[in-house]
Amino acid sequence: MRQETFISYHGYRWLILTVLAVVMCSAVYLIDDPIGGRNGGTIVGYTFGTLATIGVVWLMSYGVRKRAYYSSLGSVQGWLSAHVWIGTGLLVLVPLHAGFSFGWNVHTLTFLLMVVTIVSGIWGVFNYATLASRIESHRGGGKSTQILEHLQTLSSDVKALCKDKSEAFVSVAQRLNPPFTVNLMMLLRKAPIAHIDQRVAGAALATLPDSEHDEALRLFGILDQRCDLINGLLEEARVKALLRIWLFIHVPASVALCVALAIHILSVFFFW
User: Fold this and answer.
1) Whether the Cβ atoms of residue 73 and residue 3 lie closer than 8 Å to each other
2) Does the global pTM surpass 0.85?
3) pLDDT tens, 16-72?
4) 78: number of Cβ within 10 Å
5) What is the DSSP-derived secondary structure letter of residue 210?
6) d(CA 112, CA 199)
């Protein structure tokens, strides 16, 4: 049985309701033929504007509901589903409200801020839907502290292998086990730490005494484990960054939208 998500919540309830509302509003928009043409100042325009304002205010209330752990006003998953689909519907409703008439003014700025807010929100939701599960799954459910402890153990194992070995062995270990430092480019790449290439391993073995070959193979195995663990941690850091970075766009845009919406409404009623 397929697991229900906030996107498919209750059989896509909020998607269906949003589509029906958009279709009805579009039909009213096409039927209406006001004097002076369609614009935000007609009865239909004011109606759509009121609905859009209610929608924006309701969308902002999701942040409050998400933190109200003992609220009885529906589940958080249901609110998120409505948040996503109603927000998407506003991308159609607001242009209908304005009669698809935009210019260099605060009204268009309000619309653009709404677009940025909704699109960044959709991007964030998509990231959560596709990336969140990878934080645990790519490392078998282990915690970061456990992975770091395992890395420390592997480092100790490498030091133990190098004890009483030839200078050539120590040199190979140091060359294939460089200090680990994190930078931005490593976070952007899919697998920044590469496994030991077979040709590199063969060339390294050729420089060692025969008596140290078995220990060298053990060293290569430990370094491969180290590579997997480091790449796992870097992947987790990359995923967490993608899961959070959208908020640096979404939250400021939401606040700016509220301010611009208030100015938009005041300018319409007092200066138009």
Assistant:
1) no
2) no
3) 999 999 999 999 999 988 887 888 888 999 999 999 999 988 888 776 666 555 555
4) 16
5) G
6) 55
